[in-house]
Amino acid sequence: MDKKTLAVLGVAFVGLLGLVLITGGGGGSERLPAEPVVLASLGGPSVTWSACPAAKCLTVYVAPWCGVCRASTGFLKVFVAAMERAGVPSRVVVGLGAPDAVAEYARDFGPQALLDPGGKVPLVGGVPQFIVTSSDGRVLKRQPGVPRIIDPPVPEEDIRALASHLGLR
C-alpha cells in the first residue's frame, strides 16, 4: 500500500474509534431512558416498562401491522411463558399502531400485555424485537426478528436456542 492509502485508512480508523467511544461503545453499554417508560396494560394497571426486578428481564415488542409478528404470535406466547417459568420476568409490548389496532392485537397475548401505540419504548431495528435488560438499566441484548416462524407446538430445542442466543440461559 502506498502512503496516501495508509493515511486514509489511519484517519478512517481513528474516526471510527472516536465514534464508538462517543456512542458508548456498544456491547451492552446502551442504557434505558432516564425517565421511566410507563405503559398501560391491557388489563388496566400501568406498568413501568423500564423497571427490571431481576438480573435480566425480557421484552418482546410487536406491532399490529407486522406480518412476521402476527405469524409468530403462537411461538412468542410459548417463548414468553417458558422464560417466565425459568424465572426470567417477561413481558410483551404491542405498539407502533393505532390505539384500537394495538389493543386488538394485545388481546392475543392476554391482559398482562403492555400497550405502546405512541412508540415510547426505544427500538433499534425492526419488529418483532427481543430486548433483554438488566436491573441497573442496561440493554444487554437486542434481537430484531425471529429465527424462523414456528407454529405451536414449539420444539423445546427452539426455545433453548433462542434463550441461549439472548443470554437468558
Describe this structure in words.
With 169 residues, the chain is α/β, with parallel strands linked by helices. It folds into two domains: 1-30; 31-165, 3-Layer(aba) Sandwich (Glutaredoxin), CATH 3.40.30.10. 33% of the residues lie in helices and 21% in strands. The protein contains five helices and seven strands; from the N terminus they run αβββααβαβββα. It has helices at residues 3-22, 67-71, 73-85, 99-106, 156-165; strands spanning 38-41, 46-48, 56-62, 90-95, 114-116, 129-134, 139-144. It has a seven-stranded mixed β-sheet. Strand 4, helix 4 and strand 5 form a beta-alpha-beta unit. The radius of gyration is 19 Å and the shape is globular.
Task: List the main descriptive attributes of the protein structure presented here.
169 residues, alpha/beta, Glutaredoxin, 2 domains, 7-stranded mixed β-sheet, 33% helix
